[in-house]
């Protein structure tokens, strides 16, 4: 019972302290909001959205090939790839260099010549692949026509699709964003700051001149130690739980499907910080230890963030 009384006393004392509530609750929430909002683009820089693709072409081919190519362009236009015929005064290569078109195609009696640009390499690769498929199928149809013209329609219709571009994602549907990242990082950092409260568990009794009375009370030192550690552990655990729930339901941070296990892991981190720095304060009674810990903790946070950003 003595242990729980001491623990409850420390919990009430921590939550009555406005500085504790501001530092353990408002501070991480504000950092999540600021950093998660400001650095949104940094977490989406690897995405590439492909919209309508504009392709310029010049037709100097035979009538048969031109008709087949016209039918091809009509079909791919449904997929967002738009072919525009160049007039006599337009230099297609220069238009591609100016990035006005993703690619330039020249049709002649020998086939098709493709000109792409490094500025639109992805779009150019899509057009080149489709154009290669079309030319190969046309050449097959020409050779079949020499042997059996009645089979040409079968060759052309075989494998025709309206969906020329079929997109398949190789990544998960949900990708961690800036808010997800900083929700985890800030909560982890605040869990380590539980050591600051632990550093004052013994020193606080000396400052308030209650240490002698506590030792003289009919209670063992083990009960005092367990009660103080338990109270600090519960108080910090409640702060972390509130921050996690706030980030999950207000900021929509993705904590995964096992929130309970994550909370238990953070709880062990809080226990480690409290226990380690509680005993260190006992054997090293220096007031500036708390500020030394801030520098150490910020160094750990910087290393942790740099590691995750690689």
From TrEMBL:
One of its GO terms (molecular function) is ABC-type transporter activity. It is a multi-pass membrane protein. One of its GO terms (cellular component) is plasma membrane. Keywords: Cell membrane, Membrane, Transmembrane, Transmembrane helix. The chain crosses the membrane at residues 21-43, 181-204, 225-246, 258-279. Residues 19-285 form the ABC-2 type transporter transmembrane domain. The keyword Oxidoreductase does not apply. It holds the Pfam family ABC2_membrane_3. This is ABC-2 type transporter transmembrane domain-containing protein. It comes from Bacillus thuringiensis DB27. The lineage of its organism: Bacteria, Bacillati, Bacillota, Bacilli, Bacillales.
């Amino acid at each position: 019972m003595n242990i729980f009384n001491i623990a409850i006393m420390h919990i009430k004392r921590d939550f009555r302290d406005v500085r504790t509530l501001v530092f353990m609750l408002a501070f991480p929430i504000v950092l999540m909001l600021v950093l998660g909002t400001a650095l949104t683009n940094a977490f989406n820089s690897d995405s590439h959205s492909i919209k309508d693709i504009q392709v310029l072409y010049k037709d100097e081919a035979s009538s048969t090939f031109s008709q087949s190519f016209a039918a091809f362009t009509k079909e791919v236009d449904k997929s967002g790839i738009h072919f525009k015929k160049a007039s006599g005064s337009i230099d297609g290569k220069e238009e591609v260099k100016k990035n006005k078109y993703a690619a330039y195609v020249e049709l002649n009696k020998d086939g098709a010549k493709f000109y792409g640009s490094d500025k639109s390499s992805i779009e150019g690769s899509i057009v080149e692949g489709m154009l290669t498929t079309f030319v190969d199928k046309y050449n097959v149809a020409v050779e079949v026509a020499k042997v059996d013209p009645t089979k040409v329609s079968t060759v052309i219709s075989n494998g025709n699709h309206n969906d020329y571009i079929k997109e398949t994602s190789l990544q998960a549907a949900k990708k961690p964003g800036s808010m997800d990242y900083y929700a985890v990082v800030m909560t982890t950092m605040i869990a380590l700051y539980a050591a600051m409260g632990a550093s004052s568990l013994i020193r606080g009794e000396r400052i308030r001149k209650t240490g002698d009375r506590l030792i003289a009370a009919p209670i063992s030192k083990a009960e005092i130690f367990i009660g103080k550690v338990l109270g600090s552990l519960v108080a910090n655990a409640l702060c972390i739980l509130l921050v996690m729930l706030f980030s999950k339901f207000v900021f929509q941070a993705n904590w995964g499907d096992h929130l309970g296990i994550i909370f238990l892991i953070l709880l062990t981190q809080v226990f480690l910080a409290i226990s380690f720095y509680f005993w260190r304060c006992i054997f090293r009674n220096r007031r500036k230890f708390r500020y030394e810990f801030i520098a150490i903790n910020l160094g750990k946070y910087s290393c942790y963030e740099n590691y995750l950003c690689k």
